[in-house]
Amino acid sequence: MCTRSSLLSFCLTAGLAMGQGGEPLNPASAIRFNLPPGAPVSVVSTELGDSRAQARGGALVLDLRATLTMRNDAAQNLRGLTMVVLSQEAAPGGKGSVAVPSLNIAPGRNFPVRINLRLLRPLPAPAGPLVEVGLDGALFADFSFFGPNRLESRRTMTVWEMEARRDRQFLKAMLEKSGPEGLQQELLASLGRQAARPRVDVQVSRDQGPPPARVISTAVHALTGRNVTFAFLKLPEAPLDLVSGSALVNGAEAASPRIEAANRSNRAVRYFEVGWIVTDSADRRFLAGSLPSSSLSLELRPGRAAGTLQDRSYKFTRPGESPPTITGMSGFVSQVEFADGRIWIPSRKALIDSELHAVLPVSPEEQRLSELYRNRGLQALIEELAKF
Amino acid sequence: MSTLFFRHPGEADLALFAGGELGPLARWRIEGHLSRCAPCRKVVCEFFELRSKVIDLAELPPIDWAQLAARIHRQAEGAGESSAPATMLRPAWGAVAALLVLIAAGLYLINPFPKPAGPVRLDASAGGVELRVGDRQVLTLLNTSEKETQVSWRVSADAVSARYLDASTGLITVNNVYAQ
Q1: CA of A151: which chain B residue's CA is closest?
Q2: What DSSP designation does B160 have?
Q3: Complex-level ipTM
Q4: A4-150 has which CATH code?
Q5: Residue B171: its chain A contacts at CB < 8 A?
Q6: pLDDT in tens, B54-80
């Protein structure tokens, strides 16, 4: 016997399966671009290649493989772009973004942006596009920025651009001082570090249950975990001093990491991040994450202290291996944004002297340049460095 | 400290404690005991881990209210056909079943798929970054690098990012998912 609603459900599922499943999506119906008026970039074309939508057990599974061709319509070279990706009503507040750092796109030139996503939508799917893609920000060579900046992409892309300049400067100095051979050695060392970094997957969870559940969760963490104190790496010229910090650790999980930082500069600080390095029982070190300052509207005046965001649990796993056992933790100031919008990042020398460069991932620009060296050789890299 | 804390709680109480299901007084008493009793702490730890695993494994499938209503309807009809006294109740059963079907249809149309509920989780791996709510995948941004070593990720409290060299565009690309 078939009820009317199950028949309705079947018809909807079958309709979607016939209408969308297995067939290439129509770009106009599956994805919508919402660029703000006067945006300095535009979408020239969209290609959805192998994108598919399939109905599976009462849900629509959308696999979107989109390549956008975009154009820099501004008068400055484009250095970075962040596109926000919103799936309609999939989850309240659930969103993603795709950013492209380390660009050098001249005015009027096209460039590709690839968006690969998978999402589940309840059936019946509502009318209208399933995914909306908008601009969160574009950063130009003179550090000017355009966009709504809802994802703080201005700060993120400014940090990338500062790291890019720092690392290009370092490589240029190496070329000048030690010649092509010296530059080559540096690039080989960089590729070696990238290959040797431990592969650790991570899950971040935040308890959203009712207050009693949070209290219990905290109490159980407190009883089953042990309190591990952070050691701090002091970088020269860092505007903040890390004062104290600890986290509850249980095997491969760490909960509620908190670090207190004091502003030792003479300027107010709006935002800061602490790099968090974990040592496991095999004495391997890896970057566990970044701990951001606890308030989005922070105004940390000179001499005052503030803490990082807490109430999160971090679980580390190693693909194909047993989970790492956390035995030690250290922290360092990885970036600071002052109230006037200026940003501080560690110098290359400070990273080398503190041996952090062996643990941290290379910057996006160093990754781009080292791949250029690997694929096209030393001369191509030298020519690329000469463009800046 | 009171002798109240010296007696070992029963396993049932420790299990309830790990599940967060004790009242405030019992919770306070067990917390006091656990602070000085390593064996009981171990038991709580085991219960907590077990509970976490059970929660991970035990996602309730979405309830098909329409199917449930139809089954009740069928059972009601079957019962009506097989016994004489029930025949007298058939009009009432029919009304109840019809009402259930109406409610089920209404529920289906209003909320055909249970909304994601539960803790927000962000995952980062070589394959991509993912936002999950409870056990449900909500949004995944996939990496398309040629090699795993070309992927690095960055984790902060409310976002995870995966940076990789896109094999198709040759550009460094950073995928992010956000918990807020």
Answers
A1: B178
A2: E
A3: 0.84
A4: 2.60.40
A5: 100, 102-103, 111-114, 368
A6: 444 434 444 455 555 566 566 555 554
